[in-house]
Write a structure and sequence with these properties.
about 190 residues; mainly beta; six-stranded antiparallel β-sheet; four-stranded antiparallel β-sheet; 1 helix
Length: about 190
C-alpha cells in the first residue's frame, strides 16, 4: 500500500488571510485623521485644552469623571529651560512682592471639593533684597490637580494663575485669573472643540 505523506494545501487559508488583511486595512483607513462626529453631526467636545501666555504653556484636562465628580489637571510648562514656577502655597501677592502662586480655581457649574495640589516638591530659594526664603518648584513642568464636582449642568470657568522665573534670566510677567471656559453636562465637563 502506497501512503503519501504529502498534503495538499487548502485554498481556504489564503482566502481567509486576504479577507483578514482587507478588513484590517479598511479599519485602519476608517481611523484616519477626521474627528468623530456626535449624533447631531458636530465635532464632540474635548476634555483637554491648552494655551500659552507669558512664557508658559498650560495644558488643562478633565479626568476620572464619575457621579458628578472628577479631577481637573493643569500642567504648567515653562517654554525656556531654567525657568521655575512658584509654590501653590505662596501668598497671592508673593513674598515681599516677589513671585505669584501657581493657582487654579473654578466657578459656575463646577465647585472645588478639595485643595489644589502639585506633583512636585517645593524648594526654597533666596532672592536678593528679600529677607524670607521664596518657595518654588524645580525648573521645568509642574502638574497640579484640583478635585471638582458639578452641582448642575451649565457653564463653568477655570481661572489659572502663575509666574515663571529663572535665576539667570529674570521673570516673566505674572498671569492672573486666566479664564478657560467649559460646559458641564450629564457626561461631565468638556472644553469646546477647536
Amino acid at each position: 500500500m502506497n501512503v503519501s505523506t504529502h498534503t495538499r494545501p487548502s485554498r481556504k487559508a489564503p482566502v481567509a488571510a486576504a479577507l483578514l488583511t482587507f478588513v484590517s486595512l479598511a479599519a485602519l483607513a476608517a481611523c484616519g485623521g477626521q474627528p468623530a462626529k456626535d449624533a447631531g453631526g458636530s465635532a464632540p467636545a474635548t476634555r483637554t485644552t491648552r494655551f500659552t501666555e507669558n512664557g508658559v504653556t498650560v495644558t488643562l484636562s478633565v479626568s476620572d469623571w464619575h457621579a458628578s465628580q472628577g479631577t481637573l489637571t493643569a500642567v504648567f510648562t515653562p517654554e525656556a529651560k531654567g525657568f521655575h514656577l512658584y509654590s501653590t502655597d505662596l501668598p497671592p501677592t508673593g513674598i515681599e512682592g516677589v513671585g505669584r502662586p501657581t493657582a487654579m480655581a473654578v466657578n459656575g457649574a463646577l465647585k472645588a471639593r478639595g485643595r489644589l495640589t502639585a506633583g512636585a516638591d517645593v524648594r526654597s530659594i533666596s532672592v536678593p533684597g528679600v529677607d524670607a526664603p521664596v518657595p518654588v518648584y524645580p525648573d521645568g513642568p509642574v502638574t497640579t490637580t484640583l478635585p471638582v464636582r458639578a452641582d448642575t449642568d451649565g457653564d463653568a470657568t477655570v481661572l489659572l494663575g502663575y509666574a515663571s522665573c529663572s535665576t539667570q534670566d529674570g521673570c516673566t510677567i505674572p498671569v492672573s485669573d486666566h479664564p478657560v471656559h467649559l460646559h458641564v453636562t450629564d457626561d461631565g465637563p468638556a472644553f469646546d472643540a477647536a
